[in-house]
Amino acid sequence: MSAATTRSRTPDRLCAEAVDLARTAAEEAAAPGVVGEHAGMVSEGDRVVTHFFECKELGYRGWRWAVTVARASRAKIVTLDEVVLLPGPDALLAPEWVPWSERLRPGDMGPGDLLPTDADDLRLEPGYSGEDEPVPSSAVSEEMAELVEAEDAEMTAGTPSNLPMAPSRGTIAAVAEELGLRRARVLSRYGLHSAADRWEEAFGSKTPMAQAAPATCVSCGFLTPIGGSLGQAFGVCANEFAPADGRVVSLAYGCGGHSEAAVMPKPPRPAPPVIDETKVDTFPLRPAPDSGSVPDVSDEASADLGHS
After folding, report:
1. What is the pTM of this model?
2. Are 33 and 65 in contact (CB under 8 A)?
């Protein structure tokens, strides 16, 4: 270890004794009553010492006022260098700043919010090959602001092979747009796997709902298939009473709303009446004489009197 290094680690005596000078400087820079007790010092170099004072400011727990004093070579007067408020070892600090693209979480977007994507987003890749330039109507294209008349003005007489440069209407991007390939970028393999992992975690086979389900979504009548390569493993639930209604679910997912899990029993219907049309029932036209509640009287005299 060199002598210069040894001298730098040993605090200068006069600078170390200048505590009152450091406190006065800290009180001038800070608000009244927020400079606390002396909390030590450290040697910054030859004849340079930093004194620390506790900070009693609300919201700055663990911070310290750092006052640096210095002395010129062969001088007996200590001068003030700088005063600054610094965090201590146990200071209360704000969390580390994180870019918005990393802070964003699903569900954070609201009506009217816009979420831009980088040109080199790993989740996307060109939707067609043959040209790096996006289609003229793409949001990332420089030609979006150009008028159609300006594009037509580039056309000159003669075949495209005789032109000094190919017109924009004859580029692969323009042809792809006419064929219906209007998306300048599509999901890459990384983007597909990332989406599949999110969907599988939310509505996959390892969720508690799927573990207790009577059957999987692959055999459910409420499952709406989706196109593309993701359609081999996912679909959209269309059961309004299911927990995943309107969500992308794994084919291995399941819930109690499966279309074939339980069939509602039909209400019992009474048996139809049995009518025997082969038998004839005989009914008398007049009631029998002895069918009444009063016995038949053969005496004509008492019959004229009547009865009740």
Report:
1. 0.43
2. no
